[in-house]
Amino acid sequence: MTRFMDIHHMEGGVSAKDVAAAHDADLATQGDFGVNYLKYWVDEEAGKIFCLVEAPDAETANAVHRKAHGLVADEIYPISSEG
Hints:
Blueprint: E1 2-9, H1 16-29, E2 36-43, E3 48-55, H2 58-68, E4 75-79
Antiparallel strand pairs: 1-3, 1-4, 2-3
Helix pairs in contact: 1-2
């Protein structure tokens, strides 16, 4: 599987509580797709969410988001390693 970093841009900001709930929904859904959401980071004020995920491909990673809560990533990048 490939690791990806996805980025969500939420106009008007986002609350850490709402992101935690969305992440929980991803975790509950990911098994249906063979995906593993590993970690996420939030910049509440800027409305940015970053998700680290292992998935067969970018579309499958986004399919989990789509089914779990409907908030697909605006950007998604394959990454080779953590620094």
